[in-house]
Amino acid sequence: MWVETLKSKIHRATVTDADLNYEGSITIDEDLIEAANMFVHEKVAVVNNNNGERFETYIIRGERGSGIICLNGAAARKVQKGDIIIIMSYAVMPLEEAKVFQPTVVNLEEKTNRIR
């Protein structure tokens, strides 16, 4: 049996911008992408702690060290600058592997998006 399980999470990121006029995606600081074991173009689920919105999009590379977390395109309507979000990616793996797998979790400092 194969199961889908949490692979990576960026926890409590602060939205730094929202750009409605960009073709959809989420721009994430390259340092955060690497720390979370995520990759450019990877599908992610986003949860907005401020308003309860949940949606999916994909990652694009943001400037390294910038702390940028920007929702683009239609997703920009689901957040406001300053909102706290959780970004999650998942992997499909055999059940026995999933039982022992440990996801990568990156906790961020409030407002700065620096790794704690």
Walk me through the structure.
With 116 residues, the chain is mainly β. The protein has a single domain, classed as Barwin-like endoglucanases, CATH 2.40.40. Helices cover 10% and strands 47% of the residues. The protein has 2 helices and 8 strands; from the N terminus they run E-E-E-H-E-E-E-E-H-E. It has an 8-stranded mixed β-sheet.
List the helices and strands and how they pair.
Blueprint: E1 2-14, E2 17-19, E3 25-29, H1 30-35, E4 43-48, E5 54-62, E6 69-72, E7 84-94, H2 95-100, E8 104-107
Parallel strand pairs: 1-8, 2-6, 3-5
Antiparallel strand pairs: 1-7, 3-6, 4-5, 4-7
Spell out the helices and strands N to C: EEEHEEEEHE
Given helix and strand content, the structural type is mainly beta
Number of helices: 2
Level of helix content?
10-25%
Shape: globular
User: What characterizes the major β-sheet?
Assistant: 8 strands, mixed
Bin the strand percentage: over 45%
Which residues sit in consecutive blocks of at least 5 with pLDDT less than 50? Answer: none
Structure summary, number of beta strands: 8
Question: What is the fold named in CATH at topology level?
Answer: Barwin-like endoglucanases
The name of the CATH architecture is Beta Barrel
Total domain units: 1
Distance between the termini: 36 Å
Task: Briefly characterize the structure.
The protein has a single domain, classed as Barwin-like endoglucanases, CATH 2.40.40. It has helices at 30-35, 95-100, and strands at 2-14, 17-19, 25-29, 43-48, 54-62, 69-72, 84-94, 104-107.
Keywords:
116 residues; mainly beta; Barwin-like endoglucanases; eight-stranded mixed β-sheet
